[in-house]
Write a structure and sequence with these properties.
Elements (H helix, E strand, L loop, with lengths): L1 E4 L2 E4 H26 L26 H4 L1 H21 L10 H28 L7
Length: 134
C-alpha cells in the first residue's frame, strides 16, 4: 500500500513511521527543552511549562525557546523535518519487514533529538543563555 502526500509517495511503513515520529516529537519537545536549558520544563501531565523560568519575571536568565516563540518554533520544525526525513529515507536492509517500522522510528527519533539539541545550543548561544550541563 502506498500513500501519496504532497506528491511524495510513501510506503505503509514510511507513513506509519512518520506519524509515530511526529507524535513522539510532540511529546518529548518540552521535556527536552527542560533537559537542554535546565529551565523547569517537564513532561505533559507533570506540569509541562508551569515550572519554566520563563514565568519568573525576576529570573536572571529565561528559557530561550519560551522567550522567543520564533526560535522555539523554528527549532522544533527543523528537528521534526529532519526526523521525518530520516524516518522516510532510512534504507531497507536484511531486517526489512519485521523490524523495519521499529528501525525507521528509532532513526527518526534519534535524528529529531540530535537536531533539537543542536538547535537549542545555537539558540542559547545567540541569546547568551548559560548551558551549565553542557
Amino acid at each position: 500500500m502506498r500513500i501519496n502526500f504532497f506528491n511524495l509517495t510513501l510506503s505503509r511503513q514510511q507513513g506509519m513511521a512518520s506519524a509515530i515520529v511526529a507524535l513522539i516529537a510532540l511529546i518529548v519537545f518540552t521535556p527536552l527543552c527542560g533537559f537542554i536549558f535546565d529551565c523547569g520544563c517537564t513532561w505533559p501531565g507533570l506540569g509541562l511549562d508551569e515550572g519554566c523560568n520563563f514565568h519568573v519575571p525576576e529570573a536572571e536568565y529565561r528559557c530561550p525557546w519560551c522567550v522567543s516563540l520564533f526560535a522555539g518554533g523554528l527549532s522544533f520544525v527543523l528537528a521534526l523535518l529532519a526526523g521525518l526525513w530520516a524516518a522516510i529515507r532510512a534504507t531497507r536492509d536484511r531486517f526489512s519487514g519485521r523490524y523495519e517500522l521499529t528501525r525507521r522510528v528509532f532513526i527518526g527519533v534519534v535524528v529529531f533529538i540530535v537536531v533539537a539539541v543542536l538547535a537549542g545550543w545555537l539558540t542559547a548561544a545567540q541569546q547568551g543563555y548559560p548551558l551549565n550541563g553542557f
